[in-house]
Amino acid sequence: MVIRLTQVQDWMLLKQVRLAALLDMPTAFAVSYQTAASYSDEQWQARASSAGTEFWLAIIDDKPVGMIGASLSASNRYNLIGMWVEPPARGSGLAAQLVEAVKSRAFEKGHDRVFLDVSPSNARASNFYLKQGFSFMDEWEPLDSHPHIMVQTMVWAVD
Question: What pLDDT digit, counting tens, does each position of 21-32 carry?
Answer without folding.
Answer: 999 999 899 999
